[in-house]
Fold this sequence. Notes:
Bound molecules: zinc ion
Strand content: under 5%
Distance between the termini: 13 Å
Number of helices: 6
Structural class: mainly alpha
Order of helices and strands: HHHHHH
Radius of gyration: 16 Å
Amino acid sequence: MNRTGHVSLSLFAFSLVLxxxxxxxxxxLFVLLGAFxxxxxxxxxGLHRKLFHNxxxxxxxxxxxxxxxxxxxxxxxxIGFITHVLGDSLTPEGIHLFWPGKTRIRIGGLKxxxxxxxxxxxxxxxxxxxxxxxxxxxxWTKAVYASGLLLFGLIVVxxxxx
Length: 162
Ligand SMILES: [Zn+2]
């Protein structure tokens, strides 16, 4: 899954958190951290989707955050991490969640950069924005309209179809 896809999934997940828990908007940064950090193994030859895409890595970073920042931020980090590995496990390459164990987790054939990935990305952005706007006390119908407009703006300036 590409970076934009990871952002959209993490935003959607955070919007769900907002529905059940009253957390500060700025704490989305921890979700984003969890969604971004795994791909820092991209530049390490032979270790992509292994070194930073496993439960041990998530556990260590999660504990570090819990210890230094707080339990809630650590949970948000883990939510971001889960959306990341979930997104990657939808691709044919799968992920090595228990690396260095050899088990490869793969639950779909979604090609990175494909039209399907693009549509999923847009849909997650749409849902995420809608819930977020509702959180800012928009009625649902207004939230849906505004979210649609926002998404259209994003498509024009940033989210070009593949
Ligand atoms: Zn990844």
